[in-house]
Amino acid sequence: MQIFSKRRFSAITGVVLVTGTVAAGAAPGEQEGHKAGSRGRDVYGIVNLAGGAFGFAGAVNARGQAAFEYFGLDDQLRVGYFDGTRMTDVSPPNNQAAFLGGLNDKGEVAFSASTVEPGMPEGTPFRPFRWSARRGLLALPSLSSDAPTFITAINERSEIVGRSALSNENGADRAVRWTAANRLMPLPAPAGIVQTFASHINDDNVTVGSGDRPDGVPNVLAWDGAGRLIDLGAFGKRFAFASANNNRGEIAGMLDTLSPNLSAFLWSPGKGAVRIGARTITHALNGNGEVVGRRVSGNSDPAPRAFLFSRVRGLVDLHPRGLYASEANAANRYGVVVGLGQRTPGESIAYRWTRASAVDLNTRLLDPPAGLVLNSAIAIADNGDILASSNAGVVLLRANGGGTDAPVLGPIRHTEPRLNQPFELTLSFRDRNPGDTHGATIDWGDGSGPRAASLREYRGRGEVRASHAYTANGDYYVVVRVRDSTGKATESLQRITVLDLGTPGARSAPADPAAARRQQQVRELAARLRHGPGQLLR
Question: Which of 365, 332, 291 is nearest to 59 (CA)?
Fold first, then answer.
């Protein structure tokens, strides 16, 4: 499968997005608006994956597995893996920050992480890892233990690509590949190129990326399955880099991104490169040669518009009527596209496009809990399953009404937190098994521990209600856990800030006041470190 793991900027959300997988058994009829699905319903069941804030990247395959970044209770960026039934945090011990590189159909996860070690309280350089349920966590070799290494993709042959730095000096990055046996292969660079980057690898082990000349301007590079170099140059432009390739040998990327004439491109064997259109930005490439992304205007209106491009259809404007902005983030091999839109600036909603229509995915949810809003569709698999971010955390949308036997939770909704005043909390939940009964606990994050909470329910629909008073200013993580009578449980969490310095008797916070700052620092790292120099879209 493909993950668009080069950290390109989303003009709307700042998150990074990915494509889905190749599913050998999926039928085209299941994808065209899901009109001919196994149950004939254009509806999605909901599975809560992680209650924390979504990070930057995620991937989903047609086996119902997913990998994604999220912020945990420690405010560190972590990598989670969902096996179709339960979620596992695969981040290394003492994780400081973990960046997802990719997920394949075998359920192997590739990622990079920085850890806290003795003598390095600010974290080690980013190091490469491979994880699977069968073999567990495995550290991979890098070119230098003193400089960062970032993983960008894994293919179905278990080959991984990325970049590894020889030192912390500028110009030290080298494109590398790890074999299925975990052997590190530096990929060669042409004469006159000072550093190289690998962005993606297809299932023939063909790797694509870029190489920077001494002035920092990149050319498109490719390496065949044996690691032999193919220098594709800049296609007649000053600036070009590759973001992704597919099993047909096609390559998608960007041209002249530092100029007003920036454009996405698609290169095809025997046909060369085609410039997709003025101010188009590549987000993903599917297995059929369709590029999706966003198009930004060159005038005073900054709002982007979602697009799809193929050599057959040309440039297709996907922007839904009546929206302020839109972006296409991923497309499966049947041409079903997912992304997001905004009715007004800051009000993001998840969208799906087929040839027949564009729909707000919030209108296609099967019995959603009250208050749940899907903000962005991140990835789509060839069976139609979608990974999405929401106001209740990371969720998996199972096509044709599939779902989970665990409780499905909505967001934590609450009153304004005030010192020594009742803090009222409600949370809605659903269970597709109407005969199950439920219990709930709440950890208020102030050291008082999980406490039983009251709820009311009737035949699979319920609501948790509780009240608490905080006696000190600070940041607190509130965790609500709902368990059914068969033992299946789901939790949701939300960070709140109690800040009321004018109240007599106010005490200083026991919680970490730098939590929000740490998350922002990780976001800046993600924007800066997971590309090569000169590859940021400004």
Answer: 332
Instruction: Starting at the earlier edge strand, list the strands of the sheet with 229-233.
Output: 195-201, 207-212, 218-223, 229-233
Q: What is the pLDDT of residue 261?
A: 84
State the DSSP string of 489-523.
Answer: EEEEEEEEEE--TTSTT----SS-TTHHHHHHHHH
Query: What is the Cα–Cα distance from 308 to 330, expressed in whole angstroms?
Result: 10
Handedness of CA 477, 99, 182, 380 (dihedral sign): positive
Q: Can you list the alpha helix ranges (DSSP code H) found in 53-142? A: none
pLDDT under 50: residue ranges of the chain: 2, 4-39, 505-513, 524, 527-538
* pLDDT score at 40: 59
C-alpha 139/C-alpha 153 separation (Å) is 16
Query: 5-21 b/e with 16+ CB inside 10 Å = b?
Result: bbbbbbebbebbbbbbb
pTM of the model: 0.89
Owner of token pair 């990327």: 253
| 515 Cβ contact partners less than 8 Å away, ≥ 6 residues apart | 75, 475, 495
Q: Residue 155: how many CB atoms within 10 A of its CB?
A: 25
Cα separation, 2 vs 22, in Å, equals 9
State the burial class of residue 524 (Cβ atoms within 10 Å of its Cβ: 0-12, 13-18, 19+). Answer: exposed
Rounded CA-CA distance 221/232 in Å is: 6
User: Which residue has 């041409």 as its token pair?
Assistant: 335
